[in-house]
Amino acid sequence: MDKTVFKNILQILIILIFNSFLAQQNPKKLTETTIIKDTISKKDTIVVQKESLDDVLDTKADDQRRDIPKRMIYLNRNAQVKYQDMQIDADYISIDEEKNVIYARGKQDSLDRIIEPVIVTQAGKKYETNNFNYNYKTKQAIAYNARTEESQGIIVAEKTKKYNDSVFFMRRGLFTTDDYFIKKKDSLADYHLLAPHIKMVKGKNSSSLITGPVQMYIEQVPTPLIMPFAILPFSEKRSAGILIPSFGEREDVGFFLNGIGYYQPIGEHFDLKVLADIYTKGSWNLRPEMNYLKKYRYSGNFSADIGNTVRGIKGLDNYSKTGTYRIAWRHSQDAKANPFLTFSASVDVTSQTFYNNTVNNNYIMDQSVLRTQQNSTLSLTKRFLKLPATITGTASYSQNFATGLADLRLPQMNVAINQFYLFGSKTGVRTGLLENITVNTGLNLTNFVSTEEGELFTKAMWDKLQTGIKNNITLGTNTTIAKYFTFSLGANIDNALTTKTLTKIYDPIENLVVDQVNKKVAGYSTFSTTASLQTQLYGMLNFRKGASIEAIRHMMTPSIGFTYSPDFGGEGFGYFRNYYDANGALTPYSIFDNGIVGAPTSGMVGALGFNIGNNVEMKIKSKSDSTGVKKIKIFESLNLSGSYNFAAKTHPWSVISVNGQSSFFDNKLSVNTSLTLDPYKILYIPGEEEGIRTENFGHFSVQGFNVQLSYPLSSELFGEKKDYAKEYKQKGEIRNENYYFDDDNYAHFDQAWTLNVNANYAYSRGATRTSNKIASIGLDGSIKLTPYWNITGSTHYDMVTKDLAYTRIGFSRDQRSFTINFNWVPFGQYKVYDFFIGIKANILSDALKYKDRSFTSPNPPF
Prior knowledge:
The chain has 862 residues and is mainly beta. Helix content is 6%, strand content 60%. The protein is elongated, with a radius of gyration of 42 Å. Mean pLDDT is 84; it is low at 16-51 and 849-862.
């Protein structure tokens, strides 16, 4: 008896100690314990530990079966399992309670093909797969033919292994952003990226795909675009990524990849882009670019082009290798940042032959290769709250590619005083000449040098540097006379000071005139006065009632003005000197010639000038206008001007100028003309090119004529724009293109087109026997072949030389999720074609950048 009691007490103690030990090992975890009593011996008890779940496992199906010995649960038809934040919907689900594994399979047809996938939803994300294994203890899973949507894209992989809620590994996976494929409107994507191995990392706010070698497929056709790796971010923020290049061929440098590179954001305010252009004949170009942005303050970028252009075959006479560079800086300040102090920069410095040897084809497509000059400017402007003045400091650099000279202005400062009235108004309303006198004045300081590029910032450049200060004072006033005439008076005063003057000497040995620059401070002052009278005259010509032309209105604005300035070429001023030319003739010149402050005029001016402005309009009947009348401008402006100098000893009449501007066909056709007439007869000596201008007045020979025409044609001009949605009831697709169908099932769409026509003709002769003519016509337009096929082009034809100048043809195809661009320059110095494929999706605009998002995105990240 004592032994039995002792035995029972010992068993109870063992059980208590064992349970206490388990509680200490996992005190927070609740376990389900089943106490099974031994049917043979009622005195003995056995404790069995059952594997626990972290949460309730809810199941439902049309047919449920439980296999207790095997600890299995089988769910058939419309099966569903809910566990924590996961829900599994499938045609068949099995749960192995011993191995802690849930297996799900999609619905099959008679050939065991999956016709309805397994749908797994977790944390708001939806996944589709053919079959699925999930260990609810380790949280790991394996899925086959899984379809996963991420942001604007979708991933389909043969095998996907989930290690945890953040890391997924995929084998032979494809990624696409094709919306039709995502929404299952099409079983095949129009493009996809295929990689043998993919790792997906999911974060709290963003996710990313990291792949091994990846290749792009277009309409299931493999392309040569293969990358060793790719990082595809799924985030609205800026992300690093590879830049997709264009490829093609250029006749002089070979096949190329243009614009291949990498994009890298740096912090919140900077991003870096490095591009490269690579050619098969050895040419290369590196193009780094850094953008910066401080919201509501300023923005800008630094960029450069550095490379070598190789032409011909090494060892032959046609071989050449040219190094090129370009450095650019753009900076702009937000207008709200500081209204009293603004700074801007537009710097563009290149090697002398950069545009002639560029391997960046963008400069060919936008016609930058035709540039003959390039300018750079830095500007700092200071305004004051209480002072009526504005101070502007600038530095400018200009390159002339034709002459090889560079012009540098550093520094240049301008102080402008706001216009003010010289006298106050007694009544508050300004009347009369005195009360209307206004004063404009300012001061300009300039340092200028024109030199060769190799002399920049050398002693030779500093020796050529000129410094000048110029002050201008302008007085003006006006009043009304006899109600219809405006009388104006004005005076202009110029004061200038410079550090260098000019001395001209004829060298009989070299038989040329030598310009000798003197380092000497000198200055001049000039003034002139003007008086003018102006009015407006109106005339109306009415036609008979019922005529298609109702009336013609003519507005004439005649004005006459008298200008006077003294002869600053007199000896008393000391502004002019004389030298003897090759013929021994005494020739005057100004010591300020070729200077930066200009030179005063010689000879007294007492000229009476005239200008007659005209505006002619016509009223015609129009059914399209609500008033029934339409105005047509015959001449928006037609001006005739000239002058007669009473103080001139010879040729008192000036050249007569006629300028006109008008537009026709609802202001579509723009016409600008100019004509210059010399009223004196010009005699030409046989064998001599230069003519002699005589004093014989009244011949009015044409010295120059120019006409410019511009007409933008479009499909809208030749018919009313159709509302296809209202006119045709049926809408459908042909190969992913939207069309409207008529009753006979013919497809219709808005086939818009544009064609801008520009024509120019210029004639100039002067006093020479031979005239110069320029005649050209330019075309620039586009046409939509289909809703998504577009052709663009531009060309220029010289009617004098009868040659086609710069010509470009472009084709673009707008696919569902990407675009194809092809540009071709078939003629001229640069024969090139360029092909580019770009993905539209914003999530790939950084990773596989089809466009530059960075700071120019609609919602920049700061």
